[in-house]
Amino acid sequence: MKLEAFIERMRDERPDIIDAHDLVGCHPHPWVTRHGTGAKTRTLMNIVGPGLWYERQQGDTCWRRLDNSSEFDVLVNV
Known about the structure:
This protein is of the alpha+beta class. Helix content is 27%, strand content 27%. The chain has helices at residues 3-13, 21-24, 71-76, and strands at residues 17-19, 32-35, 42-46, 53-57, 62-65.
């Protein structure tokens, strides 16, 4: 799946959870940033610009939507 099609789908559906399998065939890969080290590492993924962030903790196999953080809070904690 092309990145544009993935973004369109996420924009329309805004799922609570994105399974890792949904991203396997996505090219290019969505932009992600990592924060922390070891077991405390978390990875943030921004989709469709401001307001739609997903987070994955170390060892998780899915991404969870961040609803209770503003974009500013997410960026400051990265």
